[in-house]
Amino acid sequence: MVVKNIFGAVLFLAIVILLSSGYAFGYQITYIPQVVSVNSSFIMIVDPGPQQTPVRITWALYNGGLANVGLFPLISGRGVCYFSNTDINATCGPSPLMNEGKNTFLFHIVTPGNEENETEVINAGSIKISLENVQRYENVVYMYVTIPHYVTVDMLTYTVYRDDLSIYAANRQLYYDVKNGWYEGNITLNPGTYYFGFVAKKGTEFGGDLLRVTIPAEEFVTIESDKNEYYLGESIGISGRASSDINAKLLFPNGSVALRLEAKIDENKNFNIEIPTNPMWPEGDYKIIVDEPLEKELSLKLKRLIEITPAFVKAEVKRYDNFSYTISIHANAAVNISKVEIEGNEGVMFDLSNNFIDEGEDVSLFLYVENVTSDIEGVIVINTNFSVNFSIPLTISVEVVSCPPCPVCNQTSQLVSCERCIEVSPKILTAECIKNEDILFSIRITNNLDTTVSGFSYEVIDSGTADNYMEELDEFGLISFDPDLGEITLDAGEQESVTLRIKPPSEGTYKGIIKISGANGYDYVSLYLECFKNISEEIESVKDEILLLGSSSAYQKISDKLDNAINALEAGNYRLAWDSVKEAKAMKDMIEVGEENKSKEEGEGFDIGYVIAILLIIVILAAFLYTRYSKARVKEEEIEGFENF
């Protein structure tokens, strides 16, 4: 009888424990991952069963952890709560499990025909799993997982769940890398949102954590312009669609960079870019190169709407003299000059011979100043019906007499003053460069006078719109000409090729004008430089560092990026080289683990599935023994009755 009572007590105890786990009431609780650690991320699912569609499910934690209450979001007839201290997408806020060991949840489940209060005990484990270095590159998730305090464990696995919480890959093993002190693995996924559930066990201790990972949809870019040809000075209209924000550049006809471009996509993946152009840029075939999210190329033709001669007005007059000047405007297309104004000086009068210019025709802009008493500076602004505006710098200086008349002075004063007497080509010089390294340009100086010209000189004029000042290049002797300009003598109609040598000392942009003068003539060359630091040593350093990655699956991709950087560097495409090195370093940093993670102490845990399995075995065993005992007892009573008979 005593044995029977023991079996009955065991059976009753097993049933009570099962009931407290929620199985006797027709609802089921599931955890993702199967076990959790203190303050770890996890998903809790309460399923009342197919016959019990819930109206509302609330939870409260009243024993251990953070005392808190909340409401389960209902998804497909189930209550689904995502807790996380690190993910803003968590639907139920931070993890309420702040204490190790048992934490008791109270559930209030309301269905159309019933209302129940149930409890659930969850153990928060002691093993902390560090997921700081689980990173995505393209559609591959690289896992470099550390276990602070414990360092190594008996087992570390991960399961990948889809966005609907169905299993994509179950119980994948991560393998320990002794050299780096982490567990590593990787998996390739299609676009979508996934949950990675990690479970670690060491002896009787355990822990779990969850990480949400999104693989973006396939990258794409479409790009088009509102027309194929533009006039210099006109804005280029670009539009298209892309999977992410746009990074691009506009290239001059010689392949150097004119502008860096960025654009944000809207909620429909559309983008628009308005690209300003400069009327002084060279004519020719330009290209827009999209670098991100995918490489794409668009070709455009830019041509000059009108040609203004001269491009700059600079003259010297005697005090109290009148000043007059004529500017010639040639039209390459039928154009209407809608407005002319002089900015910065109201004392200059002007007259335009005709506002409308037919294709191939010329008009004249007459300038006049009466009784000049002081220096005059301003800008002549010419507006057209194409929304293309032209600016002509104007400088009129009052002559300063420094010596009495003499034969030499009289002879010099007879020379005709003109800008095109001396002509310099090309007019625009652009390049990418390396700081502290020479960059060479070949320019040609032509004497258009009918007399010999010698004693050439130059002047550097900064634009004031770049990162660095061009005047500093001249002040520190970083601009030179070979042969020296002062040694050049050009007969009438003769020309000379000269090498312009520049050694920029700083990273960033330089922008301005170099004025070359000889006798009473002069001409200008526009200069734009974008300089970078020399990254050759940096490339070699990263190549040495990635050797330490050993068999890491990311090694080849990083190495390819470095090869791209080397090729770009050799080709003089320093921007591309610098971008490739930055991408390689970012990929390398992604898989490096800070040593500080190894000194942290966290966590504890255990698997409720094992408990349930053991309880089921106890129930079956108890039922079996109880049946055997009952049959034996009946047989014994029958024998005793027969003997008494």
Protein described:
With 645 residues, this protein is an alpha+beta fold. Among the domains are: 21-161 and 184-189, Macroglobulin (MG2) domain (Immunoglobulin-like, Sandwich); 221-303, Macroglobulin (MG2) domain (Immunoglobulin-like); 313-417, Sandwich (Immunoglobulin-like); 419-534, Immunoglobulins (Immunoglobulin-like). The protein is built from seven helices and 44 strands. Strand 4 and strand 5 (68-71) form a beta hairpin. Helix 4 runs antiparallel to helix 5 and helix 5 (555-570) packs antiparallel against helix 6 (574-590). The two termini are 24 Å apart.
Task: Provide a compact summary of the structure.
Among the domains are: 21-161 and 184-189, Immunoglobulin-like, CATH 2.60.40.1930; 221-303, Immunoglobulin-like (Sandwich), CATH 2.60.40; 313-417, Immunoglobulins (Immunoglobulin-like), CATH 2.60.40; 419-534, Immunoglobulins (Immunoglobulin-like), CATH 2.60.40.10. It has a 5-stranded mixed β-sheet with strand order 2-9-8-4-5, with no helix packed on it.
